[in-house]
């Protein structure tokens, strides 16, 4: 049987790839199904593993400050909105890609912690606004510094700054071509 063209490319590149768990899975699939191009599994599998590893590290940061990842995301979204640090629950849910019910539960927990308040719009009583409290702003401003440090430490431990830029550009290309485009209206 002749080697498939993609298989030759994969074999040439394999020597430069560091052995990781995904490499083990790929080798098993290549052994069991040599007719399949398993290289996409290498990319997607590694993205998944990186997400798990970074998620655990970031979760430790948030937990140290009495927050979950989702709670930090909500506080950070309000903080990024700028003064007066107010959005609707629907805007927060859309930004976080969670259901309205999940956002309602998250908002209740954050309100119980004194980090945000919900208030009915005086001009439209069906509309609610969510606003950071002073304590909420102080908490997110404190946590975001450690959050950025954790992310930078993770990247610096494994990639040069040039590699980080290249990876960011490749991921941005993937996301944009997948339809995940900016919601900014500049």
Automatic annotation (TrEMBL):
Gene3D superfamilies found in the cross-reference section: Winged helix-like DNA-binding domain superfamily/Winged helix DNA-binding domain
A matching Pfam family: MarR_2
What InterPro entries does the record point to?
A: HTH_MarR-typ, Tscrpt_reg_MarR-type_CS, WH-like_DNA-bd_sf, WH_DNA-bd_sf
- Asked whether the UniProt record includes Transcription regulation among its keywords, one would answer yes
Q: Does the keyword Plastid apply?
A: no
Q: Which PROSITE patterns match?
A: HTH_MARR_1, HTH_MARR_2
GO MF, any single term: DNA binding
Q: Which residues form the HTH marR-type domain?
A: 40-176
Keywords per UniProt = DNA-binding, Transcription, Transcription regulation
Question: PANTHER family given for it?
Answer: TRANSCRIPTIONAL REGULATOR, MARR (PTHR42756), TRANSCRIPTIONAL REPRESSOR OF EMRAB OPERON (PTHR42756:SF1)
Report what the protein is called: MarR family transcriptional regulator
What organism does this protein naturally occur in?
Brachybacterium saurashtrense
